[in-house]
Design goal:
Length: about 270
């Protein structure tokens, strides 16, 4: 079947200014990858390009194959059909990703109905509502029926992120892209969301592309790591090897900074 995502020679520009340069990345089905690097390193742009969601002001060149389909050459209608089925995204701040004027059950119902129709199954109101509640239970939301009736502002940040994950899972994608999904959460909720994502990815046999600037977070969920700086990949490999025996000076600097920050938090000299 080939890789779920294959990126070759990807260059992203704003006018004549390169933001990502000649990037190569292959994610096999079922693999868990982490992408780390400082803000502005090109992590999120690479993820957005992989599903055809780059802002119109940016241009992308190279080759991106998502589930065997050439993303950069597809019309928007074909991309819309590919998204959800092949890949879904969980964004950093669910309060802005979710529609504030729509009940959460209704928002989740749309991708659920789309999947049921694709599979040739009944997509009537009763069937869709049952699927929505099952998804909310799967992501450990308390009182799924109440959450389904609620608006985004009526629940907590951790619960909103669980709803966002449920929506991303609604179409049963083969690749889940998580773009700093725990940054806006407190430490306890962050750990719960990470455990949840690791669970559902394993249970559903999905591949994962997890984007973060937090080395500890990436190490807890990814099998392989890409380190990016200034729009380029500077190091890649097995997570344990990269984080314990870095080969590039930038990776070494990131690890040193992370250790210094942890020492400061713990009050160690």
């Amino acid at each position: 079947m080939g890789p779920i995502l294959e990126i070759s020679g990807l260059t992203i520009k704003a006018g004549d200014r390169p933001l990502v340069s000649n990037l190569d990345l292959v994610i096999e089905r079922g693999e868990r990858w982490g992408v780390i690097g400082e803000s502005g390193s090109g992590k999120s742009l690479t993820a957005l390009a992989s599903i055809g969601l780059l802002p119109s002001a940016l241009s992308a060149h190279g080759k991106i194959m998502l589930d065997g389909q050439p993303v950069l050459d597809l019309p928007e209608r074909a991309l819309t059909q590919l998204r959800g089925r092949a890949a879904s995204v969980v964004f950093q701040e669910p309060l802005t990703a979710l529609d504030p004027l729509m009940r959460l059950g209704r928002q989740t119902a749309e991708p659920v109905a789309r999947r049921l129709r694709r599979e040739g199954k009944p997509a009537d109101r009763k069937a869709v509502e049952a699927e929505v509640l099952a998804l909310f239970e799967r992501v450990a939301l308390p009182e799924p029926a109440r959450i389904a009736r609620a608006y985004p502002f009526e629940i907590s940040g951790g619960q909103r992120q669980r709803v966002a994950i449920a929506m991303a899972l609604a179409c049963q994608p083969q690749l889940l892209i998580a773009d700093e999904p725990t940054t806006a959460l407190d430490v306890t909720t962050q750990a719960e969301i990470l455990a949840l994502m690791k669970d559902v990815v394993a249970d559903m046999g999905m591949a994962l592309l997890f984007i973060s600037h937090d080395l500890a977070v990436v190490n807890s969920i990814a099998e392989k790591i890409v380190v990016m700086r200034n729009g380029e990949i500077v190091e890649t490999g097995a997570a344990q090897a990269v984080l314990s025996r870095p080969e590039h000076a930038y990776t070494t600097a990131l690890l040193a900074a992370a250790t210094k920050f942890e020492d400061a938090l713990e009050g160690r000299p």
